[in-house]
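INFO  loader      accepted 1 record
INFO  loader      residues=259
INFO  predictor   begin
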Amino acid sequence: MKQGYYLMSERGATMSRPGGGRREKRWWELVCPCCPCLCPQQGEQYSNVSPFRREKLLFEFNTFFDVNRDGLLEKRDFETAGERLCKRGGWLPEDPRAVRVSQLMTNLWLALRKHADRNHDEKVTRLEWVKLWEEVDHRWSAVGPRENTHLKEVVEEEPKRSPEWLREYFNYKFMLLDVAGDGVLDEEEFVYIMSQHGASETDAKNAWFLMCKGRRVLDQGAFEQLCEEFFLSDDPTSAGTYLGARLYFLPGEQRDTVP
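INFO  predictor   done
INFO  writer      dumping tokens
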């Protein structure tokens, strides 16, 4: 039986530590101590992103944008994604919805180029993609400075604010799944779209059940919360994990073929 992340424990095994003492083994050291996708030999590139979260991020990269599997995202990939969405909806170029999609995809590419394209070559690699989400996590988790005044003894922390491009990205994903265009998602829509992106109908239905926890529909607010969990959480049991219509993510499955 294949073992995915959801079956592996990070605790319970120890190994010797140089200089004395013992430390707990991480789960990927138990799976395969020399796998280049998991162990520290590849390591430093993704040092601040857990292997589980990296698999989710690369799944998104490979499934929804890098259709030709060249390991790169370019402007044309986003234009193609927008065209597919408009074609599915039967929207002509002058339709306000098609105009909205075109502008949305342009803005997403510009944001990705600005924040992820580190060498300014008009291409975003898998490594740059993962680093982008690492940066989002770092900034979102940062705690704002506390005021130092004589008027307040207890000062609340500044609320976390997601970057505008991230909200636009979540909005695109909602539009992709909202086939009926009624502002809510149901199981039929989720299964239909995710089946078009490689998921089996059975897995998609099971993922919907685990993700929605009894809810028949998801509004955009609830959907965006699931997106946050999918992209930013390291918890394999969080509801957002199932947003990819997958019940688990196997170690190394989204292996890099291009640096």
